[in-house]
Amino acid sequence: MGVMGRIDADLPVRVTLARAPLGIWGSLRAGRRNVLELIPEMATRAPIVSGISGKRWHMVMDPEALRLILRDRVEDYPKSMVTKLILQPAIGNSLFVAEGAEWLWQRRTAAPVFSHRNIAALAPVMTHAAERAASRFAAASGRAIDAFDEMVSATFEVISDVTFSGGAAFDRAGVHRAIEDYIGQTAKVSLLDILGAPAWVPRPGRVFARSALRQMKQMADAAVAERKRIPAEGVPDLLDLLLAGEDPKSGRKMTLDELRDNLLTFIVAGHETTALTLSWSLYLCAFAPEIQALARAEAQAALGRRAATVTDLPALPLARRIVDEALRLYPPAAFLSRTARKADRLCGREIRPDDTVILPIYALHRHHAHWQNPDSFDPDRFLDAKAIPRLAYLPFGDGPRVCIGASFALQEAVIILATLLARFRLALVPGKTPKPVMILTLRPEGGVWLAVEPV
Fold it and tell me: Under a CB-based contact definition with an 8 Å cutoff, are residues 149 and 447 in contact?
């Protein structure tokens, strides 16, 4: 049994959760190695778990308590300072970080950008990326391929094309490198975070990452300025839609800084989370060849030898269920953190102002009270959406702050997954099992190595 992941022949890889209190130093070591190791095993069975590691904290897995935090008392549970310390230097006070009225007007402005019509209009970009990914898989025929690397390439291609279509001033490779450098240097938990040190106390790793940030923002600023000068042709992309957008209540439009920060938010959130979802989906298909065979038959019947399009989605229900189950077992946002503003009671437990309230989505999705055989891979548990307990499945959050790009991500994931499954047989590579490790998102440490064979 490894420190970071547990392997059983009949179960896909999972995180080894804590079986004893960790204390401050144990929490620091676990948090820097894998944030999910901070979750106690009992969190997969109890409605709430509390403790003290420098600060008082509570992990909440009870759906009714989650409803209060995410829907009914959103203002009382803002995003934690740790989340803001990591993300604010990169994406400013954009949708993901902003609170209250500042968040609300941005959300009203951006919501039409992600309407069903606009997302469907961007689907050809996803189909093209799926075709290119299939070409790369074909070139790797007969040998192992890192599906995580390939899916990052595919989803970054999509988000680049739907964000800055035709943007000559946008250095895609440069922005991609800057994002990876920033996340790698800043997203690990600091001892100062665990001790609850105030935001003005510098976290060394986050100070060193500023040059990558400056470079990323300069490239995005140049691309926004160019688009204002020369509008894009054809289907409006995300930048066009945001430039045209305004708050329907106040008429307020985003400043150039706000535009840039929200675009960087969409780029950071919009490619990596979908790449992770696809990578874990492909791993699970390789782990369960019989399910992979059923999904391949479905995809071949719908697609033949062509790449999937948005009109094919109704004919690909198993591919969608595989994506849903991958999001349950390996949610990209697997560990959310809030700070209590007011005294409260959750599950009968006293919550004090400034307590840290943690939503361990990883534990929620594997909770024995909500899921049968919670560690097993079973896409058919999503055959009846009404049978899924409300607020027991939160891959995109919930309430007013539910992920604005959820339908975009699901559409993209199913299009790419079905295209690949129709053409290739995937098998696990012995000795190359991915380890689920969370830094900012739940990543497959070591990559997702698969043997690829055309069918």
Answer: yes
Write down the pLDDT at residue 312.
98
Query: Rounded to whole angstroms, how far apart are CA atoms 212 and 404?
Result: 27
- Terminal CA-CA length for the chain: 35
All domains of the chain, ordered by start, with CATH? 6-454 (1.10.630.10)
Q: Answer yes or no: are the C-beta atoms of 141 and 453 closer than 8 Å.
A: yes
Phi, psi dihedrals of residue 453, rounded to the nearest 5°? -135, 125
What letter does residue 430 receive in the DSSP assignment? T
Res 20: pLDDT: 66
pLDDT in tens, 252-285: 999 888 888 888 888 877 788 999 999 999 999 9
Residue 271 CB partners (closer than 8 Å, separation 6+): 152, 155, 156, 158, 159
Q: Which residues pair with 426 in a beta bridge?
A: 452
* Residue 171 DSSP label: -
- Answer whether 176's CB lies under 8 Å from 146's CB: no
Sign of the CA dihedral running 353, 396, 115, 165: positive
Closest CA to 450 of 419, 410, 412, 421: 421
State the Cα–Cα distance between residues 83 and 81, nearest whole angstrom: 5
What pLDDT is stored for residue 24 in this prediction?
A: 60
Euclidean distance between CA atoms 404 and 274, whole angstroms: 13
| Helix, strand, or coil (residue 350) | strand
pTM of the prediction? 0.89
